[in-house]
Amino acid sequence: MTNLSQHGGFDEELLSQVKDSLVEEFSEGEYDSFEFAQLCQRRDGSVYGTRGQCRKGSPISVKPGEGMPAIAKKAKERGLKQADVKSVADAVRAKYGQKQVKKGAPLESAARRLGERLKPKDEDQQQKPKDRPLEELGKRSLEREQLKAGSRGLAARREMVRRVLGEAPPTPPKPKGEGTLAIENKIQEMQKGLARVRKVKGEAKGPVAKKLYGSIERAMQQDLKKIARAGDVTKAKAAKAAAKLSTLPPKKAMVVNKKLLQGARTPELMRILKEEKLNAYQRKRVEGELRKRGVSSSAFPKGAGGRARRGKAVGEKTSFDIPQGIKGYDPKKDMAGLGRLIGQGAMGRVKLTEGPPPGVTKQGKIGEFEAAAIKKLEGSGVTPTLHGATVSGKAKIVSGGLGGHVKEASGYLGMSRMAGGPYGDQRWQMTSKEKEAATDEYLRVRKAIHTRGVAHNDMHGGNFFYDKSTGKGGLVDFGLAQTSPKAALIEALGTTNGRDWQADRMRVKDYNTRSVQRFVSNSQKVRDKMEEDFGVRVNAEIRTSMDGINRIFGRMTDQDAERYINELYDGI
Amino acid sequence: MASKSKYFDLIAKRKELIFQGKNEEAERLLDLAEEMQRRGQVTKEEALAAAYL
After folding, report:
1. Less CB within 10 Å around the terminal CB: N or C of chain A?
2. Is A223 exposed, middle or buried (0-12, 13-18, 19+ CB in 10 A)?
3. Half-sphere exposure of A44 (CA within 13 A, CB side)
4. Dist CA A11 CA A488 (whole Å)
């Protein structure tokens, strides 16, 4: 940067004019109180004022007292000729008669900019835009274009501005870091991979493999084109891409492709089963295709083996136990019998049945522990009684997401009716006092199910039943429940720490009742105790899978969890 | 015969999402359901049926 104010290259009068001009310019905007300490020079040669230090990256930095030789040396280091510096000094001196110009040694563009600013104002005002010097118009245009940075065609417009100014084109930017690789090298690497695939394709046995490698070849050619178009790619990225392409794809692609499978001859499929390393899922696909063609399972050759699969495939069926309800009760028949249908939709129906016994029967998704949880809570007084449940077919792990914390199956479930109605339906008409009473009851209901080792996992206002006349509460919908004291402990701890977001919906923390205060106090004690006894700091959310729960609690037993739950609800 | 209820379907869909492990999406549906309740767009019977589902 050329620090004009510090090295004293221009006389004070000249410098003050420049300053005035800049102050005036800044005053038009929000910089009313702008007061710069020094002048700095940008890369394009224009100058600006600053109260602090000049920005980094400016071409020349001049310290106070530096003479012409030092400035010239710096200019030379940055690719500027000493002769240029001198000619600038001469040009400015000739035009404005400043005798001390040579000390300042500004760059040519800085001098030109100064020249623009030092012109008498009235002369400048009289000039029509079209009469202004090209270089001034160019400068203004450049500034406008810089404001529009990012818009399309900017490079072309900048080039035009440069031509107007008669400036030399900028030197191309240096490569970013050492990792940049020439496109040719990348293409070479990719071509090696392609050649390898072509070779394998030539040696491939059977039409399925040939087709597969043909499709890979086409994909690789497309990638090559993409890379050629992409321009600079770092070495690491290019190497990764080349490695990916030069490695043969997993056999999975071969067997998962439905069309390829269907198009393959039976001996080819038998060969794949025998020779290729398939995982369980791939093997299943091939075997399925063979079965469709009437090949018996006993005829399947033993495979070359592969890595063991993790978990169960999506949609795979398994089973869960349904506890016995009332002897002779069939919920399916109950649903078909007398009663009143109160809700129906694409995913289920709910009917108030006349029985015997009278109650509510639902048809739809039944949770893995739904019936078991209701059965376990019998006698608690806060849940319906289980009449009976049936599941049509086996439970399945649901497709579409990451998989829930419990499995589900379609079926029927009959139960008794709960007193009162959904709290979520009543709360909008309740007073604060009534809500406080309901919150205390909500805590009592939570205690009832948690101390019996059940986590409901969905205790929002719609599932919490409340009878305003008696002040009694209860819970329905155990479809997402887990029958585990550890899961219950997670849900219990989540009451006030936000990890049970359904309790948050009930705004338990907002009601400062005695029960809530007691619970918060107990909660802190239990947390400290758990950390002291087992080094466990539970911060898990509700609906954590049993695998996850066991990982969290480590060596803590169900009995320990029950003890902590009792301490948590002590005095409530 | 009960008529089709948007609220009932909303709660049923929400439950399916939870079974799929999509808890965040499910909570958004519950927000919607609670808003319907707050505005009085849900009958007592619909609320009851959805609770038991």
Report:
1. C
2. middle
3. 16
4. 84
Structure tokens at A424: 């979520």
What is the spatial distance between Cα A503 and Cα A445, in angstroms, rounded to a whole number?
A: 12
ipTM of the complex in this document: 0.93
Contact at CB, A402 and B2, closer than 8 angstroms: no
CA dist A482 → A278, A295, A491, B6 (Å)? 36, 43, 10, 28
Q: Which are the contacts of A62, defined by CB distance < 8 A and separation ≥ 6? A: A1, A2, A3, A6, A7, A70, A71, A74, A105
What is the spatial distance between Cα A20 and Cα A449, in angstroms, rounded to a whole number? 80
Please state whether the peptide bond connecting residue A301 to the residue before it is cis, i.e. omega within 30 degrees of 0: no
Provide the mean pLDDT of chain A. Answer: 69
Q: Which amino acid is at A407?
A: K
Element (H, E) at A540: none
Cβ contact (<8 Å) for A477 and B51?
yes
Which is more confident, A428 or A210?
A428
β-sheet bridge partners, residue A367 = A408
CA A444, chain centre distance (Å):
39
Contacts of B51 in chain A (CB under 8 A): 422, 462-463, 465, 476-477
Burial class (CB in 10 A: 0-12, 13-18, 19+), B47: buried
pTM over 0.80, yes/no: no
A48 pLDDT higher than 70: no
Using the beta-carbon criterion (under 8 Å), do A421 and B44 form an inter-chain contact? yes
DSSP calls for B18-42: HHTT-HHHHHHHHHHHHHHHHTT-S
